[in-house]
Write a structure and sequence with these properties.
The complex is a heterodimer of chains A (500) and B (120). Chain A has 500 residues and is an alpha+beta fold. Chain A has helices at 2-21, 32-37, 53-60, 70-79, 100-110, 122-126, 133-136, 141-146, 264-267, 339-342, and strands at residues 154-165, 172-187, 191-203, 216-217, 221-229, 237-244, 281-290, 294-301, 310-319, 343-357, 369-383, 386-397, 414-428, 431-441, 446-459, 462-476, 485-499. In chain A, strands 1-2-3-5-6-7-8-9-10-11-12-13-14-15-16-17 form a 16-stranded antiparallel beta barrel. The radius of gyration of chain A is 25 Å and the shape is globular. Chain B is mostly helical and 120 residues long. Chain B has one domain: Cytochrome c-like domain (Cytochrome Bc1 Complex, Chain D, domain 2). In chain B, 58% of the residues lie in helices and 3% in strands. Classes of the chains: A alpha+beta (500), B mainly alpha (120).
Chain lengths: 500, 120
């Protein structure tokens, strides 16, 4: 009776919270890129942090805004008819040799104009949108020469969650809180950087003998920290080095509606190996956009105590929709509507080869190693309000239990097959629903998951997600030493994530 | 014959001077818009459509500034006929923009007209 009452109250609280958020008005978001470029979150996101195709282009363009860069600016200005780009009386041409783009900006800065190039109309420099002109690149000469972003490019993302798990003694729990710092940007479009620092994540292990203890900080950690050398030697190749998610799947791990449920093909583990496709690695990667619609990446991972490099590669191609440089597709507006006006298909394939286990750098000790590979295929189909994501991965581990050669236990070879399909529907710009099915055969048994998700953005920088995971396991051994059994998990989560 | 030619030339000049009248904007900030009285009758329907549909995601101020300056106010990129078409295609494909191809075509034609008027 008491449990039922608590459950009813919990549902009422969650419902009330959700309903109250439905009535919040519009506002602009303000995290790092929004601040830097003076654009709305919805420029790059559907509901933050899921990316739309312009967000993907921004990511692939190494955090330089679309159409920026000297080449792009030259192309755009060449395309602009002379009568539109009316010179202002006060503006003068920049003379001299060298970096005309930089000289132009320096001159604009020295004159106090806000990032306006010499050919910009005077009206723009005095317009209400003055500060936003030039994609927010207005800066003084000193800042420009120092290549330092005018605004400190840091933002915070916080998540607060409540979860309902029928199998737990404490069925409803305000389960976790996370605070992350994000930083990202570029230095004069020549180099870019990105960092994610987990400042707080909940750790319940300190709760031992009193339930009055609030959970401590699990650990602080750098999840991502990398720098990109853009367009190295004036080629399309970018070099990325540092801690990063290697470019394997079509979507970065955060690029989804769900907050708590990662895509199984990218997050499953095999045996005692902790490797997952989306885990941050210390790596050097080269990537490039080729022909506007192909993206290729390849890299080398160098892990501590592992004197053998791991390697990976990715290739993807986009048919229809805006290309990887955010150029719109050619659509004849004079013709009748066609399915191809709206259809976008992106296909990607990847492979990862590596070894893990005990360190192979200790003299005199034979390492216990697991050699593994993953190969996968992804597909992203977008048509009007519908989106379908398909992901499948095939894995092979030759010693998933990391058996010592002396223990007379045979190494466990595992072939893993994991797939996910997720359909998404945009009800409103700020209300998106999705349903996902996952199939996971990772050598421990079979798991099927059904995950419906409803995401709502009352403000562009606030996201409320209601999701449910129905997990059915068949003959599944949760750990390598546990007994295989059938079980079902039913977990509901209400998450509020906000960035600032 | 010469008289006729002279009259035609004078009439053309008069017409041209009338056509030079630029589209006016009125209001400030979020309330800024093109003055409906300065929109020619043949573009009234498209103007009403634009005013009704485009404000779903942004103010008309953004459009007015883009037309007047030839630059998109957020990105600073040139706002000319090619860019107008690209924006039209972007809005056509934008989920929940609630605009069909015919409506996009009408708004693109109106924006091209406004650009042309502003360039005079």
């Amino acid at each position: 009776m008491k449990k039922r009452l608590i459950r009813s109250i919990s549902i009422a609280v969650i419902g009330g919270l959700a309903l109250s958020l439905l009535h919040v008005g519009k506002a602009s978001a303000i995290p790092a890129f929004t601040r830097a470029y003076k654009v709305e979150c919805s420029t790059c996101h559907t509901i933050y942090p899921e990316l739309n195709e312009y967000g993907e282009a921004f990511l692939k363009n190494s955090y330089v805004y679309f159409g920026k860069g000297k080449k792009a600016v030259r192309e755009k200005e060449a395309a602009a008819p002379a009568e539109i780009a009316k010179p202002a009386a006060a503006a003068t041409d920049v003379k001299g040799e060298g970096d005309a783009d930089k000289l132009s900006k320096l001159k604009a800065g020295a004159m106090g104009a806000s990032g306006a190039t010499a050919s910009e109309p005077a009206a723009e420099a005095t317009s209400p949108a003055n500060g936003a002109a030039g994609g927010g690149e207005a800066k003084s000469e000193g800042l420009l020469l120092a290549a330092i972003p005018e605004l400190l490019p840091i933002s915070f993302t916080a998540s607060v969650q409540g979860a309902y798990d029928h199998s737990q003694p404490n069925e409803f729990d305000l389960s976790s809180r996370v605070l992350k710092l994000n930083a990202g940007g570029n230095f004069r479009e020549k180099a870019s950087f990105f960092a994610t620092y987990v400042a707080y994540s909940e750790n319940t292990s300190n709760i031992t003998n009193t339930t009055s203890t609030t959970p401590a900080n699990n650990s602080t950690n750098i999840k991502e920290l990398y720098v990109i050398w853009r367009r190295a030697f004036d080629t399309p190749i970018n070099f990325r080095v540092g801690r990063m998610e290697p470019k394997l799947s079509l979507w970065k791990s955060s690029n989804k509606l769900s907050v708590t449920n990662s895509f199984a093909p990218y997050s499953y583990t095999v045996g005692v190996s902790e490797f997952t496709i989306q885990q941050p690695q210390d790596a050097l990667e080269a990537n490039a956009i080729l022909g506007n619609r192909f993206f290729v990446a390849g890299g080398v991972v160098n892990r501590k105590f592992q004197n053998a490099k791991e390697g990976y590669g990715h290739i993807s191609c986009k048919f229809g929709g805006a290309d990887y440089l955010a150029n719109e597709p050619e659509v004849d507006l004079a013709k009748e509507e066609s399915i191809f006006d709206f259809l976008t298909i992106t296909v990607g394939a990847y492979g990862y080869y590596g070894k893990n286990g005990t360190p192979n750098t200790t003299p005199g000790i034979t390492p216990i190693q697991n050699t593994y590979y993953r190969s996968g295929v992804d597909m992203d189909i977008l048509y009007k309000l519908f989106r379908l994501r398909l992901a499948g991965v095939l894995g092979d581990d030759d010693s998933s239990n990391l058996t010592a050669s002396l223990s007379n236990v045979a190494p466990v070879k595992v072939k893993s097959y994991v797939a996910a399909v997720e359909g998404e529907f945009t009800f409103l710009q700020n209300l998106i629903g999705a349903i996902r099915f996952e199939y996971q055969d990772d050598g421990r048994g079979l798991v099927r998951r059904y995950i419906p998700t409803l995401a709502y953005g009352p403000l562009e920088n606030v996201k409320v997600v209601l999701e449910y995971k129905h997990e059915v396991a068949t003959s599944y051994a949760s750990t390598p030493t546990s007994v295989a059994q059938d079980f079902t998990n039913r977990i509901g989560t209400l998450d509020v994530t906000f960035s600032f | 014959m010469r008289k006729h030619m002279l009259l035609i030339a004078l009439f053309t000049l008069v017409i041209a001077s009338v056509a030079d009248a630029r589209i006016m904007a009125k209001g400030r900030g979020a309330k800024m818009n093109f003055d409906p009285d300065s929109i020619p009758a043949q573009y009234k329907a498209q103007f009403d459509l634009m005013t009704r549909k485009c404000v779903k995601c942004h103010t008309m101020e953004r459009t007015v500034i883009a037309i007047q300056t030839g630059r998109a106010p957020i990105t600073g990129q040139p706002f000319e006929r090619q860019a107008v078409k690209a924006y039209g295609i972007k809005m056509l494909r934008k989920p929940d923009s609630n605009m069909n191809k015919q409506e996009i075509r009408d708004v693109v034609m109106l924006l091209n007209f406004l650009l042309g008027e502003n360039a005079k």
